Amino acid sequence: MLYDLSLSADYMKFLKVERARAEKARVLVVRLNLLDSSRPVQHSRSYVYFPISIMGAKAKKAFDRMGAQVVSRWEAKKGEKPSYREQLGKILTKREFSQLARGYDQIGDIVIIEFTGSRSKEKEIAQILIDSNISIKTVLAKAGAVRGKYRVRKLRYVAGVRNFIATCRENGCTFRFDTRKVFFSNRLSYERSRILGLVKDRENVMVMFAGIGPFAIEIAKANRHSNIVAVELNRFGYKYMLENVKLNKVDNVKPVLGDVKKVSGKYRNFADRIIMPLPMSSMSFLDEAYKVAKKKAIVHLYAFADKPDTVKDAVRMHAKEKGYGVRFLEWREVRPYSTTDSEYAVDYQILK
Ligand SMILES: C[S@@+](CC[C@H](N)C(=O)[O-])C[C@H]1O[C@@H](n2cnc3c(N)ncnc32)[C@H](O)[C@@H]1O
Prior knowledge:
Bound molecules: S-adenosylmethionine
Distance between the termini: 81 Å
CATH architecture of the largest domain: 3-Layer(aba) Sandwich
Strand content: 25-35%
Helix content: 25-40%
Oligomer: single chain
């Protein structure tokens, strides 16, 4: 059987082999008369790619034995360097491309992709990303939805350096954490900078659902006379928050390991500002917000809803039941969540 290696104009066949076995592979392809010497050999961080022409079953066996693989790879025409978009466009359908674009997150040198096509295509995507962007060292794939009380997502290693620990910069701070064990999304970086712009120095701030500490640490760094209490239930989130407090040299954040429901009693009338970034269930912590709030505290509430008025109505009703007043300040759509719902940020003032 002859393997079909018919080529498109610029997407060519190569024998991909680990650098350590490259010399052996070169000798083999020359001996088998398969090396296409009119085309250049390509290199990536870990592999060498020998341009090859048609091959038979005998060659396939020899390649398998060596752990070498025949792959399609972009071959630039002289002087032309195709962008990763062009390369992806060659192997993905429009639908696959837009799925990839929607689900793509880069956190430090780790890229997390969402792709429901074949695993071999996923690997090709990952290799294109790594080869075309020097800042990408690892590609992971989302292997499920964000779930559970810790809001964590399963991730699968795809390509590059096998690493799950991310280090990234956001709003002038550095964060380090295990992508498998805690929640972190840099899609919320604008929201964090928005809140950062509202905080005044010397305010007392309660960050509920603090995760690895981005809200708390960014506020603390910019407001050295503020006191920030940051409560997190996931012990991994808490552990990384402690580490990130040190990493960013802030001494005005108090990380607390525990459930907001239980911890809030210790901080009665503490807060000028309360941040509640748990959109799935923050509405069931409104009592706790009242508990920790000073007389005219400001609340930043995050919730999934069909429209902001749904969130506002629920807050208004709850306040009425408890005998407090509320004054709504602002709202913003943070991101779409499903076909019907979005995550909304609703800012309001408590009037005790
Ligand atoms: C959506 S994440 C937000 C994390 C962080 N604020 C951020 O912006 O990256 C919500 C966090 O709340 C934590 N959490 C959930 N229920 C909690 C509770 N009852 N008390 C304290 N933390 C809780 C989860 O473990 C998770 O880290």
